[in-house]
Each structure stands twice: as C-alpha cells, then as structure tokens.
Design goal:
Low-confidence stretches: none
CATH architecture of the largest domain: 3-Layer(aba) Sandwich
CATH class of the largest domain: Alpha Beta
Number of strands: 20
Structural class: alpha+beta
Largest sheet: 7 strands, antiparallel
CATH topology of the largest domain: Vanillyl-alcohol Oxidase, Chain A, domain 3
Number of helices: 15
Distance between the termini: 27 Å
Helix content: 25-40%
Radius of gyration: 22 Å
Mean pLDDT: 97
Strand content: 15-25%
Bound molecules: flavin-adenine dinucleotide
C-alpha cells in the first residue's frame, strides 16, 4: 500500500492525475491500496479524522471535488478482469478500466456493457448507470449486474446481489445509477453476451463516417436527425469539433457523423442509408465505410480521453432534437471558439442517439429497481468546453448553458422535464436534474443509513 502525503508545494500533477483539473487541489493524501484490508484501514482513518474518501478509477468524473480533506483512494491495483464463459459473466476489479475489460472479453468471444473511452473506470461508469455502445440492444450496464462487492463506510465488506434483502437490497439498487459516494467498490460482476450472436461481418463492427466542413451544418443536422429514432443495433453520433493541427484546414470548425451498427452489413446499410447516398458524400471531406475490430471500438475517442486542462460536461438527455436546434447550437459552438481562441482547439460537442426499447423493457422487470431515471430519452447531447486558463470558466459556463438551452427547445415546447445524465454531472450539479424528486429522497435516506458521517464524498 503506497501512501503519498503532499507537503503543499508540489505540482498538482505529480500527485494526482484527473481528466479535468476543475475543483482539484492537493489532497490530504493519495493512497494506492493493494488489499481490501488497506481500504478498510483508509476508511477507518478517514472516519476518525473527519476526512473524505474519494475512490478513483479512470479519473474521468468532472463532478468530484478534491482538496485538503480528501484521501484519494487510487484503485489502480484492483484491476483484475475474470471472464466466466460458463456463467456468461465477467468479474471486474474496482479500479479496472474499459479497454482492459473489452480486451479480456473479446479474447473469450464475448462483450459486456462498456463505455466509449478505453480509459474510463468501469466502477465509476457503472455507478452512474453505464451507457454503452450496446445500450440500444441491451439497455444499461446497471440492468445487467449480477453482484457487487463493496467496502462500506463502517469498514465492513459486503457482497450485494439481486437476492439481497432489507437495507442491503436498497444499497444494491442505489448503487445502480445513484451510486457515486456510497461505498468503495471492490469488484462487480456483469453479464456478458456472445459476439457471435450479433452476426457481425467478419466479427467486426460496421461503421460509416462522414467528415464535413462546418459550412455543411444544415446538411449534417438533417442527416443526423434522419437516422432518429435508430433501431436497436444502430448508434449514430454527430460531433462538433475543429480540424486538428497538421491537417489542411487546421483550426477550422468541422463536423463528424459516425454510425456504428452492431449487426450484419446488409441491415447496417439499410439503417444508415441516408449516410450512403452520393449527395451525403458530395460535400464530405472524407467518407468511409469500414469494419472495426471490437478491441479498437474506442480508438477514435482516445484524444477526448486525455487527462489535464479544465473541462466540463454540460449535457442534456432529450426525447427529440430538431435540425434547426442543431444548426443554432453549432453557431454558438463556433462563436465560443472564436471568442476564446485558447479554448477553441479542443472544445467539442457531441450528439448521440440510441433506441430506448431495451432500457424501458428492463425497467419493467419486477424487483429490478435502479436509479437511472430518464430511460425514455433516446438523444444525448454534451458540450465540453476544454480550456487551460481558469479565467475562461465564466465564458465557458455561459456558452455551455446557452447551447444546452438551445438543444432543449423541442422538448421544452412539449413541456418535458429538463434532465441530465448522472455520469456526466457538472461540478456543483443541481441534483434535481439528475434524479426524480422521489428517487432523490430515497437515495438520501440510503446515504444516511450507510454513511451517516459522510466518510465518502457524495454528490
Ligand atoms: C471521455 C469520456 C467518455 C465517457 N464515456 C461514457 C460512456 O460512454 N458512458 C457512460 O455511461 N459514461 C461515460 N462517461 C462518464 C463516466 O462514466 C463518468 O465520468 C464516470 O464516473 C467515470 O469513472 P472514472 O472511474 O473514470 O472516474 P473517477 O473520477 O475516477 O470516478 C468517478 C466517480 O466514481 C467513483 N468511483 C470510481 N471508482 C470507484 C470505486 N472503485 N468505488 C467507488 N466509487 C468509485 C469516484 O469516487 C467518483 O465519484 C465518459 C466520460 C468521459 C470523460
């Protein structure tokens, strides 16, 4: 067990590495436990000394404050992955990251519900619901958990399963969607599915990608919305970004439409037909149709996973989105970059869409309570300002809130509640947008019961 206690004059990054530095200061200590006993010792020490424990996995959560009262429990040694083919399950250590899980599963001919960045901690991802490449077919990661092993704030180690009863049943449910800051996850077991059952071409994922100049925003918005609502196997995304250094139009606003299909090529071509027309390709800087290895499914998001700098994940879960709102959101994205040149290069926005059928069906299964509240929303939007000068925060916040307001126009007109995704809470998140009022009351009661002293920092 390694313990690092900063003296106070160190460079932050020599002590702790996080996806975003927002709200991150030197902690009281960083502990890298090797055993469950180490973790219990940390919990007991924090409890006795009015400190807060923050277990860290991939470090991708932007909503977690870290400071002089924090013991940062870096779970990186708890990175085991054990696939059980007979039981169609995978047991994942509390510090394991997505890329390792995908590799281990694919080696056994299966997959589980993993996020879109190889660097994501799987425990942290699971605790907020877990939205994966396969949400349209299977629902959420929290719908497919077989057991969770935790160290509680009182220092006990418990294994929770769908058969748990009483307070343990409530904790099991709460960890499924509203689980940040309740316990330390030692491991969790998720269901796996055979890759062969997807009937993929050559066991690979069909992908169609168009890269368009910013001037083609109206066309991009129409193309993206023409794919909605997608069938279960189709996962379309639309990204706002800027051409990277070294490319002919470096720094110019650009658009990427990418659609993965988790099924046979012929069905993929039918589902993504609007992206395959000559008109769609005509304005594209690049138009490709490729088959992607399962283990490389997250390669294109590697740049978005880099640690450091200041980032926030302003987001909205939507029922509908109109081409007009997308076009207006893009104009605001471009204007933010123009007014804040140091933030322009890396700031991005992304729309994703999936079929809600599987997640709604899962919610209807009796005795299957989770805290993923907004299963009827099939369009996700995120605006991520990414800057290096903290003075940019005000401008970033104003721009992001404006863009999110814009993409909500259709839902607002229908009188729908404004909601966001737990895994992408922003720093200082208003919790009423994440959970229902009733859910929030229940979660608060579970927190009081399991962690009355607030040993674990919780949103
Ligand atoms: C580039 C990027 C891509 C993303 N893609 C997706 C996606 O496809 N689907 C999706 O659902 N979400 C996605 N997210 C959101 C992500 O799932 C959440 O930010 C998640 O909380 C990150 O977990 P982490 O371990 O990487 O981060 P950390 O900051 O290390 O942890 C985040 C939270 O989880 C807690 N936590 C982590 N490990 C443990 C543990 N072992 N025990 C108890 N608590 C723990 C932390 O204490 C903290 O509260 C993405 C985020 C980014 C930045």
């Amino acid at each position: 067990c390694t313990v690092t206690i900063p003296k106070g004059d160190e460079d932050l990054h020599s002590i702790i590495s996080r996806w975003s530095d927002l709200g991150v200061k030197l902690p009281f200590a960083v502990v890298v436990p090797s055993t469950e006993e180490d973790i219990i010792a940390v919990i007991n020490f924090a409890s006795q000394n009015s400190l807060h424990v923050v277990p860290g996995g991939g470090g991708h959560g932007v909503f977690v404050p870290i400071g002089e009262k924090t013991i940062y429990l870096d779970m990186k040694n708890f990175n085991s992955v054990a696939v059980n083919k007979e039981e169609s399950s995978v047991t994942i250590g509390g510090g394991a990251v997505t890329g390792e899980i995908i590799k281990a599963c694919v080696a056994e001919g299966c997959y589980t519900l993993t996020g879109n960045s190889d660097a994501l901690g799987v425990a942290g991802y699971f605790l907020g619901g877990g939205n994966s490449f396969i949400t349209g077919l299977h629902g959420l990661a929290v719908d497919h958990v077989l057991s969770i092993r935790v160290a509680s704030a009182s220092g006990s180690v418990i294994t929770l399963t769908p058969s748990s009863t009483g307070a343990e049943a409530s904790l099991f449910s709460t960890l499924r969607g509203a689980g940040h800051g309740l316990t330390a996850i030692l491991s969790l077991t998720l269901r796996t599915f055979p890759i062969a059952a997807l009937s993929l071409p050559d066991s690979k994922i069909w992908n169609r990608k168009l890269i368009l100049p910013g001037t083609a925003i109206a066309q991009a918005a129409t193309l993206f919305t023409s794919l909605l609502p997608p069938p279960g196997p189709l996962l379309p995304v639309l990204i706002f970004g800027r051409a990277p250094p070294g490319t002919p139009a470096a720094g110019a606003p650009m658009l990427i439409i990418s659609a993965n299909y988790y099924g046979p090529s012929a069905s993929a071509e039918a589902a993504a037909a609007p992206l395959l027309t000559p008109e769609a390709s005509a304005t594209a800087i690049l138009a490709t149709t490729t088959l992607v290895d399962f283990t490389a499914m997250n390669a294109s998001s590697a740049a978005m996973s880099a640690h450091g700098g200041f980032k926030e994940t302003y987001n909205a879960m939507l029922a509908t989105i109109s081409p007009a709102s997308i076009t207006s959101a893009f104009a605001q994205f471009v204007a933010f970059g123009a007014a804040n040149p140091s933030a322009a290069a890396r700031t991005y926005a992304v729309f994703g869409a999936w079929s809600t059928g599987a997640q709604l069906a899962n919610a209807a299964i009796p005795n299957n309570k989770t805290y993923f509240a907004h299963r009827d929303r099939g369009v996700f939007f995120q605006f991520t300002p990414w800057y290096t000068d903290p003075a940019t925060r005000g401008a970033a916040d104003a721009a992001a809130r404006g863009v999110v307001r814009t993409v909500r126009e259709s839902d607002d007109a229908s009188g729908l509640e404004r909601v966001i995704f737990a895994n992408n809470m922003i720093f200082g998140q208003e919790m009423g947008e994440v959970y229902t009022r009733e859910g929030l009351e229940e979660v608060t009661a579970v927190k009081r019961e399991w962690d009355p002293k607030g040993v674990f920092w919780s949103p």
